[in-house]
Amino acid sequence: MRTVPVEDWDLASLKDDSRKSLLLSSISPHKLIEMIADEGIRAAIQKTVHLRLVEATCSPGYWRAEAKFQLSTDTFDLFFNGRMGYRAQYYLSVKEGRCFNRLVVDKLTLAFGQGSTAAACGIASQWSQIEASLNAEHSKIWIAGDWAAFCGEPHVLRPDNWVQSWNASNDKPIGLAAPCPNPASIELKGSFVDVQKRRIFLPKNKRDRDEKIHRFGWT
Fold it and tell me: Whole-prediction pTM value?
């Protein structure tokens, strides 16, 4: 896997030099995935993962697994804002973003299965349904809080392609923010699956998710 070149991952507006150094460091994407997986295993063992099944409001009968857990501040920052991280992979290409996303999803699915997270959350009998949701193709990782995590954050992450995309739009360029909330939590969201019919449902407003992250750094 590649990293975005330092000169392209523009953090010149970020005033925190130590944070800037972290986000521009040479940690590899593979190493970062292992860091996330290790923290996922730790959260599962400590029973701090919040796992549940949620039914699709616009398509009853389809359910997805949702898991939320906290990362260390540095790991979260690297994951979401670093030149080797999640959004950076999508910046390089949609294909690379999807690959990185899938690798993280698979690592965390394994971590939560081994950590008996479903049992800790009182839904052990539904693990096969949870696993089917997480293993399906539209599963994803994202920052917990979504829109709220970006609000009020300065626009300090300014790679050229994202800046150009936002300049061509009429929207506030929230994808140029580099949020690092406290607590620094991420959400693992599976695909909406009807296990009995072996069908997957993808909401219409999520069908261009990968392309939006590639163009805007946000979805």
Answer: 0.93
